[in-house]
Design goal:
This protein has 148 residues and is an all-alpha fold. It contains 3 helices and no strands.
């Protein structure tokens, strides 16, 4: 969870900061330098945090704009594909209408339909099978039939 940055509060006056009783001289100066470094880091830390938040907001708006652009491109592409599919369906419908009209015209002039041709072909094949299974007539039988 991200917490909001705290507002910088001014450092308490030097008289309010307790000084350890045993410190004096260089040790006391080191102590004071540490306090100064802490205050400086605290002030710079909030500035750095605010800068990072600004950068994050800028990056977020850029990525949202890019995502919106890509989504628009994808929607346009899908629209194109849908339009192409619709055109193909219209051509299929037109082809079906054409075939129906040609079939009606051929029927009017007495041309056999595809079903008629299929039935005729089946009948011819059946007759060919019957002829193939019949015993062949011998020449002597033919002569006997003619004479008789």
């Amino acid at each position: 969870m991200v917490s909001r940055p705290r507002k910088h509060t001014p450092a308490p006056p030097a008289s309010a900061i307790p000084t350890p009783p045993a410190m004096s001289g260089p040790a006391h100066n080191i102590w004071l330098a540490g306090l100064g470094a802490f205050a400086s880091a605290q002030a710079e830390g909030s500035k750095a945090f605010e800068a990072l938040v600004k950068q994050g907001l800028a990056l977020q708006s850029q990525t949202q704009a890019l995502a919106k652009e890509r989504l628009t491109e994808a929607a346009e592409r899908m629209e194109e594909l849908t339009a192409q599919a619709g055109a193909a369906a219209r051509w299929d419908k037109l082809e079906g209408i054409f075939e129906q009209r040609v079939a009606r015209a051929l029927t009017r002039v007495g041309s056999p339909t595809a079903q008629d041709w299929a039935a005729l072909l089946a009948r011819v094949e059946a007759l060919e099978q019957q002829l193939a299974t019949r015993p062949a007539a011998s020449p002597t039988r033919k002569a006997a039939k003619k004479a008789g």
